[in-house]
């Protein structure tokens, strides 16, 4: 009888220790962003020292591509972007995706964190078209100026690979990287990026577009 009680107490103690360890692990993962699936894949610009981060849609899990109406999840992921030190977040989702993923509060949350929001919608099933090029002309100049001054830019799409990888590579090229080097850097940071049909060919066709003197002037203008 006594041995059974000892076994029961020992079993309970082990169960409590296991539960405490699991809770500690969950808190650690939550703080690092791993539990949510939201993580920043960072690409450096070498001697320029600017950095680009690619991310999936904030407020939802990368491994479970489902819309979420949990405001705390969006706040948590904006906090991750803020702690990394991003000066700008570029959203590549279109208006219908912003609504679907409940991102209406994103601009306000970013503003409260002193992060500039840039919206440059890119169709998930197409390469950049004239509509995107028109929007990108001003956005691209500002982002390149930030990077060339050692700043940090975050870019997100739905999965953090397809559109975000393509635009990150293009931005690297506009900041001075060669096309192949840009592809290699993006793929090293985010395996599986720039893989959909025509994406690599598009990136290889990109060339630097902005002069340093233009960027210096634009960086002084209000967003």
Which secondary structure elements does this structure contain, and how are they paired or packed?
Layout: H1 2-32, E1 41-44, E2 51-55, H2 71-84, E3 88-91, H3 95-100, H4 106-112, E4 116-119, H5 130-148, E5 152-156, H6 162-174, H7 179-189, H8 199-204, H9 212-219
Helix pairs in contact: 5-9, 6-7
Describe the structure.
The structure is a single chain. The chain has 223 residues and is of the alpha/beta class. The chain folds into 2 domains: 1-32; 37-219, Protein-Tyrosine Phosphatase, Chain A, CATH 3.90.190. The protein contains 9 helices and 5 strands. The protein has a 5-stranded mixed β-sheet with strand order 1-2-5-3-4, with helices on both faces. A hairpin with a 6-residue loop joins strand 1 (41-44) and strand 2 (51-55). Helix 5 (130-148) packs across helix 9 and helix 6 crosses helix 7 (179-189). Residues 18-35 and 213-223 have low confidence and may be disordered.
């Amino acid at each position: 009888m006594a041995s059974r009680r000892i076994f029961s107490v020992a079993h309970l103690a082990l169960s409590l220790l296991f539960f405490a360890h699991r809770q500690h692990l969950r808190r650690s993962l939550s703080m690092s962003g791993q539990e949510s699936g939201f993580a920043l894949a960072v690409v450096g610009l070498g001697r320029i020292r600017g950095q680009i981060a690619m991310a999936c849609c904030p407020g939802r899990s990368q491994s479970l591509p489902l819309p979420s109406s949990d405001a705390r999840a969006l706040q948590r992921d904006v906090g991750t972007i803020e702690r990394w030190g991003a000066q700008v977040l570029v959203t590549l989702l279109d208006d219908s995706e912003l609504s679907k993923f409940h991102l209406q509060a994103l601009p306000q949350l970013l503003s409260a964190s002193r992060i500039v929001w840039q919206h440059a919608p890119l169709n998930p099933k197409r390469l950049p078209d004239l509509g995107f090029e028109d929007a990108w002309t001003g956005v691209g100049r500002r982002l390149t100026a930030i990077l060339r001054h050692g700043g940090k830019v975050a870019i997100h799409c739905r999965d953090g690979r397809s559109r975000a990888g393509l635009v990150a590579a293009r931005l690297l090229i506009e900041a001075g990287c060669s096309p192949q080097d840009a592809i290699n850097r993006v793929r090293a940071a985010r395996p599986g990026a720039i893989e959909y049909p025509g994406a690599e060919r598009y990136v290889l066709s990109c060339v630097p577009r902005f002069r340093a003197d233009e960027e210096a002037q634009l960086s002084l203008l209000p967003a």
